[in-house]
Amino acid sequence: MTGRIYAKNLGINLDLGGEKELFKWFLACLLFGKPIQQEVAKKTFFEFEKNNLTAPKKILDSGWNKLVKILDKGHYVRYDYSTADKLLEVCGQLLDKYGTIKNLIKASDNIKDLEKRLLELKGIGPVTAKIFIRDIKKVFFKIKNEPKRVFAGIQISKGLEKKILKLEQELNPAIPWIAPPNLHITIIPPWEENDLKYALKKLENLKGGLKRFKIVFNNLSLKYRQGKASLIFLEGEARKDALNFKPHLTLARLKSGNYENMSQKIKRQKISWEEEVFSIALFESILLPEGALYKIIKKIKLYPKEYLVP
Question: What's the whole-model pTM score?
Answer without folding.
Answer: 0.83
